[in-house]
Design brief:
This protein has 10 helices and 13 strands. It is of the alpha+beta class. It has 2 domains: 168 residues, no CATH class; 183 residues, no CATH class. Helix 2 packs antiparallel against helix 3 and helix 4 packs antiparallel against helix 5. The longest helix has 35 residues. It starts with a strand and ends in a 16-residue tail after the last helix.
């Protein structure tokens, strides 16, 4: 299985100029290959990934000598990425989904250089990552890299920061069995409530930074297009969004890691989030909560560990429960765990729920309390 490590890069001005040039060449190549594919299809001519790969070789030799500048594997991966997108759209179409067409990339919209299998070396002792046709770049390698390195993806973020995503092949590591199962119900007020009486507060990262983001958007709109001040304002806004995404992902990573480490079977609602966000009144709150990303993290973290994530049809999990019922989410979580016939809790048997803040999750203090025995065993 593949694991990724993300390290910050600090290229000097000379190296950064080369990186930006290689990004622009990759963007131009992507558009050229997409144009060839579109033209072939319009003329009912069959074209394959091998054909476009051969076109890259032809362009390098005859028409575009600047294609000699990037490492050859980087250009091959541009072709691979294009065809992966085409296959993805084709699969969605076969599944009955409405799809559009791939768009050409505008200047500055290509963000990655993919060094797959070769063309790189990593010096963890001196904190350097070397890339073929670019050179050695200072990096902050803050973690030990375990496993066989299979590739390095260099990525430029809108904030202007550069990162290296190091892809490593590792043997799946089985986690100790706990003998425990948990049901998880996600919500708006609380990010989740589980069948073991834990309620995690919704961190509402976007909501908390909305005022600052609105101010930065307003400041950007006042700047003259093409000016240095506008670029400075754009970077400030990009950094605000980057911080927001980092906060959200840190919270989701730590929360999902807790459940994978402590339960053998994790039952979650099989929600159709794309349909849910059509409710404009709740769409931003749902997207801010990032339920889908949380489910994805649970799913890939259990790979090879012996743990299981099971999606349960949410229909009927809230049947007969009013919105003002303080145990609504807890009962739903138990119905996800045990089945839809799990009864409402009698007043005299109502359990105390343990509310945990997002800050406690991030600081690693969320699950240090001793869990009391459940008020009721049912099954």
């Amino acid at each position: 299985m593949l694991r990724s490590y993300k390290f910050r890069l600090y290229p000097n001005k000379k190296v950064e100029k080369i990186l930006e040039e290689h990004l622009e060449i990759s963007r131009w190549l992507y558009n050229k290959l997409l144009e060839q594919i579109n033209n072939a299809r319009e003329n009912n001519v069959k074209i394959t990934q091998r054909d476009t790969q051969a076109l890259i070789v032809k362009l390098k030799k005859e028409e575009q000598p600047e294609f000699q500048k990037p490492y050859s594997k980087v250009l091959q991966m541009v072709n691979h990425q294009l065809w992966s997108s085409i296959r993805g759209l084709s699969q969605l179409k076969n599944d009955g989904k409405k799809i559009g067409k791939l768009r050409y990339k505008k200047k500055g919209r290509w963000k990655t250089l993919n060094y797959n299998q070769s063309g790189f070396s990593i010096d963890t002792k001196n904190n350097r990552i070397s890339l073929s046709k670019i050179g050695s770049i200072k990096a902050k390698i803050h973690r030990k890299i375990d496993g066989k390195v299979k590739g390095v993806i260099v990525k430029r973020y809108p904030s202007g920061k550069w990162y290296a995503i190091v892809q490593v092949e590792v043997e799946p590591e089985k986690l100790p069995e706990t003998g425990k199962t948990v049901g998880i119900d996600v919500g708006i007020k609380y990010f989740l409530t589980d069948s073991d009486r834990k309620q995690i507060e919704n961190p509402r990262f976007y909501e908390k930074t909305l005022k600052r983001i609105k101010g930065l958007h307003k400041n950007l709109s006042r700047k003259q297009k093409g000016s240095k001040n506008r670029e400075k304002a754009r970077i400030k806004l990009a950094k605000a969004y980057e911080k927001l995404n980092n906060q959200r992902r840190d919270f989701l990573h730590k929360l999902s890691r807790y459940y994978v480490d402590n339960y053998d079977l994790i039952k979650v609602e099989g929600l159709n989030i794309m349909n849910m966000v059509r409710n404009h009144r709740l769409s931003q709150k749902i997207l801010d909560a990032s339920w889908g990303e949380f489910m994805q993290m649970l799913s890939y973290k259990v790979e090879g560990t012996g743990k299981i994530v099971k999606k349960v049809n949410p229909r009927g999990t809230s049947k007969g429960l009013t919105y003002d019922n303080p145990l609504r989410d807890y009962i739903s979580a138990n119905r996800i765990k045990w089945g839809r016939d799990y009864p409402d809790m009698p007043v005299e048997r109502r359990p105390l729920l343990h509310t945990i803040s997002a800050k406690e999750v991030v600081m690693g203090q969320a699950f240090l309390m001793n869990q009391e025995a459940p008020c009721k065993s049912w099954g």
